[in-house]
Amino acid sequence: MEKIVEQNLLFDFYGELLTEHQRNVYRDAVCNDMSLSEVAEEYGISRQGVHDLLKRCDKILQDYEDKLRLIRRFDAIGEKLEEIRSLSGEQEDILKLTEEIREQL
Questions:
Q1: pLDDT of residue 32
Q2: pTM of the entire structure?
Q3: At a CB cut-off of 8 Å and minimum separation 6, what does 59 contact?
Q4: Candidates 3.30.565.10, 1.20.140.160, 2.60.120.200, 1.10.10.10; correct CATH number of 3-68?
Q5: DSSP 34
């Protein structure tokens, strides 16, 4: 999986578990694709400080996934829903139900 995609997924699932400062810096650097210099200027910290914070956040978010496995479960449920859709053929009630479940995820 591409690193940026993985970082965004981890942030989507576990970002609220970071401190507000970590969340803001990580969102700007990773999700909003700001450079280290831009983020450093925005928050009044050094580029090295931003780099270190991003590495620390990556580790924290990956540790949450290693323990909770929410992304892995989400992907597995999505695969099962696709399998149900393909087996259901044109049965509209089943297709509608799988879409409702997917939206709730």
A1: 95
A2: 0.82
A3: none
A4: 1.10.10.10
A5: -
